[in-house]
Write a structure and sequence with these properties.
It is built from 1 helix and 6 strands.
């Protein structure tokens, strides 16, 4: 993950890398299931744009329910350190 990582969740909340890792710390092992759907990629030199969809269902240890079908777009970059995700944006699918 890139140091300048930006995550926009299905509720429109914007998280930087620190806040995203904090969110992950509230997911108990086995508490959330995710099913990845279709994924397409487009390469632009060292950049790759990833577009896809997924279903998530579960609960954080705070009690917050995470249940959605969503589409996402992510931007990855390859450099000397390997692949790093710079941005990930998810949007709920209102009427799948």
């Amino acid at each position: 993950m890139a140091e300048d990582f930006c995550y926009v969740d299905i509720y429109g909340q914007i998280l930087d890398q620190t806040r995203y890792f904090a969110l992950l710390s509230h997911i108990p092992a086995g508490a959330i299931t995710m099913q990845l759907g279709d994924v397409t990629t487009r390469g632009y030199g060292p950049l790759v744009h990833v577009i896809g969809d997924y279903t998530v269902d579960g609960r954080l240890d705070t009690g917050k329910v995470l249940r959605s079908q969503a589409r996402f777009s992510a931007l990855w970059r390859h450099d000397a350190d390997g692949w790093r995700c710079h941005a990930h944006h998810s949007t709920s699918i209102a009427n799948p």
